[in-house]
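Structure, all two chains, one model.
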Amino acid sequence: MREVDYTEYSNRQLAAVPLAVLALAILILVGWSLFVTGAPTDPGAPVTPGIDFTGGTELRVESDMTQQEVEASFDQTVISVQGVVGSGDTYVVRLQSSDVQSIRQQAQAADMNVLSSASTAPSFGAGAQQTAVIGLVVAFTGMSLLVFGLFRTFVPSLAVVVSAFSDIIIPLAVMNFIGIKLSLGTVAALLMLIGYSVDSDILLNNHVLRRSGGFYESVYRAMETGITMTLTSIAAMSVMAVVATIFNIDLMADIGIVLVIGLTADLMNTYLLNLSLLRWYKYEGVAR
Amino acid sequence: MSAIRDNWRIVLLVLLLVASAVVLFVPGATAGGGANETEAPTGANVSADERDSGWTNLQYGIQLDGGSRIRAPIVGNTTENVNITSFNESDSLETTLAQRFEIDRLDVEVTPNEQNEPDSGTVEVYSRNVTQAELLTALQDEGYDVSESDVRNGVTQSTRDEMVSVIDEKLQVSALTGADVREARTPTGENYIVIEATGRDIGELRQILDERGIVRQYVLYQAQNGSVVREEVLTQEDFDDIGSVRQDQAGRYSVGVTLSDSAAGPFMQAMQTHGYTQGTRCGVDTTSSTPPEEQLSAGDRCLLTTLNEEPVFAAGVEPGLASSFRDDTFVNDPSMSMTAPDRDRARNLELSLKVGAPLPAPLDFAEAQTTSLQPSLGDQYKTNSVITGLIAVIAVSGAVYTRYRDPRVAAPMVVTALSEVVILLGFVSLVQFPIDLSHIAGFIAVIGTGVDDLIIIADEILQEKGVATGRVFQNRFRKAFWVIGAAAATTIIAMSPLMVLSLGDLTGFAIVTIVGVLIGVLVTRPAYGDILRHLVLSEDER
């Protein structure tokens, strides 16, 4: 890591990359809301909401039938039928209707073994969505206030908050592309990111602001510890994502994937964005 | 002695680990200990507790043990600030509204104004077919001064409390072990009821909840002028002792009942008034689709029992019972038996009678959220998620070892992080908190943050300059702790909304993460600092 020579780059150059990525991510989310989930006149959600929020039913069934036959067994609109990796006769069926009783009866009538079912009424999902947004806003605001309280200086605190914001926005945008819908699990992962991703920022700020020693010396020491931390977390979460995907534990897989993306974004945001703001503050901001 | 005092952090960690092991593995060491057992009903076809709690005292939720959960709002609209002065007035208003909307009187609840009483001056209507506007107009027509702002969706707190207690009773009587019911509220102010039953199919749960469980008994006969008399003589509150379903020689299913002392007298008088003092005949077949009233022939004198307004039993009075009505001896032994056409309906009748009170309002299943999982899939999740967790730990160990290349630093790190999970498991076992998939994700998150903090401690203490004295160690440890404390505080703040907001499975995830972080910051991570001190300081430098 010591190979990176920050003195060769201006603050503007350092901040340009993460800010460009953040802008692109925001653009994707806005575009998604205007053209994918909604229309320019009627904007939708920035990320495609899953059954937890739109309402609907998800079944996990065992059946000898083919995917098409499974799909044809239901009267209700079928959103998707997915074969489960590693067990040929298990399918995950998602339906728009939340009438779980009638759906289960139809599945049983077609000789499917219903392993699990989950249904959410649309009104219930809408409430959950509102709750999730409230939760994210409260968590983010609380974290921001705490960071400002800890450092009591504007620019370094802002640097942490902006990095954390970007750490959440980037995975949201990536979710759209890799087809992960917003679920309770991904909301949990986003909240965890708020807590997780500021660790390395706090560490960096602490070393630079509260310790003796030169700026670059402090930065390198913080980086050594911080990058180990984040890479360890990424290792744990990517393993969790891969293994949970193989085992078809969707909730854990979703949490793992979102955290891997968020923590990777955090590496960039901490050591480019936060660092450049900190350097500006240390060399120019304080002097003013 | 001084060795213990100097290493109190490690001692505390070891003590907590031992305590957790006791709580986890010693049978009966936890608070719950069998309090969940419900009285098994005699004659029920449900075998004893089938759930195998395994070799730990951990409780599993429905995702890992199989089972069903329903979250559903209650059907109903409520008008507040209605000036009803007496119980007589509320009684007559209930009748008026029930007639006007053509609904059962049970579906109207009027609570008169009373000082310091909750929910006083309210009118509730539990029916999908009555809109808020209709309720408002009806009350205004009756001369009450109410406006649009007084009417709201939902029911009163006392009705919700009653729902919870009646459903709880129903679950217990129906022998759904491991079943639980509670009330929850969304931040947007909507209330709903959460019903959970471990190891049960959602169909079974729905069947119990679908039914309001309203039992009534009527006299049914043709009066001399040819008109049909149908009058309520008993409701389920009038019963004292309910037997179990029995099958007689003729193959009929019946439930033996005993009336309460206060109900027996009035019932006997009613029997005398309506002329049930001789053995009576009844040609009504409740299994037929023709309403009982139309099946009635001239000489019939029936006792008609309905369950949720559906006829389940109609029969004449046997001569022996009739004579006890005639000579006033019925009150000495007020028992009789009620027959049902099939076993299922007999069971439902028994259940409803045993619960004693009907559900005050129906649950709105169209607006519900449900989860159901077969025990076999739960077992699969249980094994697989543990494997996932273990592999994540191996990945963490690998990453840490790559960084330090020194097993003396890396090994205690992994052991410390794992001990956090053990203590956390001890905690959830102690409070008998049911573990679900989301909690296992929480455990993995705790390992992640835990190791992060241990890396901070290790890097701070193992600086190149070397730790010469115990004082330098203390100083560095304190510096590391500032960062760890700050990081822990942000995690707790980020997770705390989930603890309060009702977002399904995520509450448990948040609790596990927060408790894990607290255990880490207060116990295990400081202990790791002490372990490192032993590694880096020679005997006399400590």
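DSSP finds 16 helices and 15 strands in chain B.
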